[in-house]
Amino acid sequence: MQTKRLGNSDLDITPIGVGAWAIGGGGWAFGWGPQDDTESVDAIRAAIDAGINWIDTAAVYGLGHSEEIVAKALTGIGKRPYVFTKCERIWNEKGEIGKSLKADSIRREVEASLRRLKVDVIDLYQIHWPEPDEDIEEGWATMAELKQEGKVRWIGVSNFNEEQMKRAQKIAPITSLQPPYSLVQREIEESILPHTAATNVGVIVYSPMKNGLLSGRMTKERVANLPEDDFRRRSPYFQEPGLTNTLHLVEDLDPVAGKYGCTVGEVAIAWTLHHPAVTSAIVGLRNRSQLDGVIKSATLKIENADFQLIDQLLKKHNL
């Protein structure tokens, strides 16, 4: 599995990494429903065994639980993968989620993440959301201080637009951006990806399979039976008429996947990796079996004729 340098860092990362959002479990505002921690640990270790060399999590995933599971999975591992996490989303004793880019908050958050992850330094520390917008400068200046102090190795942002990145870059360089990007969500192509390419910002895209819709395994029946506390029940992408349209796109992509002996999900992930400004993609795993449906995307080379066919299918479905 080839690696690619992440922006201005010294991190050479694999084309896909383990996304640890869902393993945070249920019982919080943006959970994916209940999750078996043993299966989560097994999934992470299977991914490492397969050659994946980085994991992306966030403090808010499961209100700290995801970071704890990542730490458990890495206990006793010989060659540890890079660990990326995020700050800015905070919560109170009632589990109510808030937003803060204040210096004192970020400093409390990084210490808490270091403890939960059981590491001395975080490889990539990211601002989760640019909120509140008026505090971006204070938050980013604090992130730069944490890097200088050696608590984190590199610093990045997530969900920032071009203008917000420019504001941060006046203070300190940005190593990476983490935006949503998939066949059905392509907004970053217009101005954000050109900006990252021009300023040597690595791009780690999230939701390349759009929360499972493009995996090839999602059906209307599965959507209807999602757990009550699965955030996807509230997602507009899981509502009509978009749901039917996306599932029809998946059906049309099936012959492409068949040609390469892979899943539609692997085609969807590889499609995002084809963009020259994209460094890598986050792939969520909740159990070992899910790895089989995504791992080929790291080495899949789609022919130009098939990229043109995919573009035609996107136009057919008004995407």
Features:
TIM Barrel; eight-stranded parallel β-barrel; two-stranded antiparallel sheet; 12 strands; 319 residues; 11 helices; alpha/beta
Question: What is the fold named in CATH at topology level?
Answer: TIM Barrel
Major beta sheet, strand line-up: 3-4-5-8-9-10-11-12
CATH class call = Alpha Beta
Give the full name of the CATH homologous superfamily. NADP-dependent oxidoreductase domain
Q: Tally the helices: what do you get?
A: 11
CATH architecture: Alpha-Beta Barrel
Tally of structural domains:
1
Which range best describes the helical content: under 10%, 10-25%, 25-40%, 40-55%, 55-70% or over 70%? Answer: 25-40%
Binned strand content: 15-25%
Low-confidence stretches: none
Question: What does this protein look like?
Answer:
The protein contains eleven helices and twelve strands. The chain has an eight-stranded parallel barrel with strand order 3-4-5-8-9-10-11-12, surrounded by five helices. Strands 1-2 form a two-stranded antiparallel sheet. It is globular. The chain has helices spanning 37-49, 65-74, 103-117, 136-149, 162-169, 192-198, 220-224, 242-260, 264-273, 288-291, 304-316; strands at residues 4-5, 12-13, 16-19, 54-56, 82-87, 89-91, 97-99, 122-127, 152-158, 176-178, 202-205, 280-284. It has a single domain (4-316), classed as TIM Barrel (Alpha-Beta Barrel). The two termini are 31 Å apart. Helix 1 (37-49) crosses helix 2, helix 8 (242-260) crosses helix 9 and helix 8 (242-260) runs antiparallel to helix 11. It is an alpha/beta fold. Helix content is 37%, strand content 15%.
